[in-house]
Design brief:
single chain, 268 residues, alpha/beta, Leucine-rich repeat, LRR (right-handed beta-alpha superhelix), 2 domains, seven-stranded parallel sheet, three-stranded parallel sheet, elongated
């Protein structure tokens, strides 16, 4: 599926094979979410065989969500996955069908999800993948304000290390995150390449989290002189062990001022 590009450009005779009901089993790999234009065709087949490779957590969750309509109203009767995914896949299918499932026993305390788009993010949230973690990294170039608000509805009571990379975070979003009781126990907050500017840095240093977090990582953000000024205003919190500003486009003078304030705690 993913080698052809725009499925809408296929010759009509190929898509007619699906719509005419001639495809009983489609064998394919699923390296990403199913393309939107492919979903109506999946409803015309009897079996989708994606068992050629083991799927990551986000991919088999996406497969459950992507095939929901095809299984409910179409011909799709079977979805085959790799043997390592079968048990977890079956549990998610049952949860989607309304059964109450406790996923906590199946989840690792350390989790990392990459290349997230909004659809996959909300699937992870829906099936409890963003709850109960101790250490969580979420990498995306397509998530922002709405997803931060949604993330704060998850069970983050065990969360001690949170890293968001590539997100689009405004000052208001950063303030909402840093002031939320849901993340009050964080030891590490990483907001890498998230568009953090001076206003967001000001919101961070004014939040209660700044006084308690051990590592604050703002690498890859152009915080500017305003951001440097904001970091120089408060006393250095006793709990802070590392302030990481790698790739922050800081001038030599700004680095010297920050070094004089934060000493060995500053990493640039």
């Amino acid at each position: 599926m993913h080698h052809f590009g725009d499925i809408g450009s296929f010759p009509a005779r190929l898509t007619n094979l699906f719509r005419g009901g001639w495809i009983e089993s489609l064998v394919t790999s699923v390296p990403y979410n199913l393309p939107d234009e492919m979903l109506p065709l999946v409803a015309q087949i009897g079996e989708l065989d994606a068992s050629s490779m083991a799927l990551s957590d986000e991919l088999y969750l996406g497969l459950v969500a992507d095939t929901a309509d095809a299984r409910a109203t179409g011909r799709l009767a079977r979805v085959k996955v790799h043997s390592t995914n079968r048990k977890a896949f079956a549990r998610v299918l049952r949860a989607q069908q309304g059964e109450t499932i406790d996923f906590s026993a199946d989840l690792e305390p350390v989790r990392a999800y990459y290349n997230l788009d909004p659809r996959t993010f909300y699937q992870l949230l829906q099936f409890g993948r963003l709850s109960g973690a101790r250490d969580m990294s979420l990498h995306s170039a397509a998530l922002g304000e709405a997803e931060v608000a949604a993330l704060l509805t998850a069970d983050l009571s065990n969360l001690r290390h949170l890293r968001l990379s590539g997100w689009n975070l405004t000052r208001d979003v950063v303030a909402a995150l840093a002031n939320s009781p849901a993340v009050a126990k964080l030891a590490t907050l990483g907001l890498n390449v998230c568009g953090i500017q001076a206003g967001s840095v000001t919101a961070l240093v004014r939040s209660p989290l700044f006084a308690t977090v051990k590592t604050l990582d703002l690498s890859g953000n152009k915080i500017g002189k305003g951001g440097v000024t904001a970091l120089l205003k408060p006393d250095v919190p006793p709990a802070l062990k590392q302030l990481v500003l790698n790739g922050g486009w800081l001038s030599a003078a700004d680095k010297r001022r920050l070094k004089a304030k934060y000493g060995a705690k500053l990493k640039v």
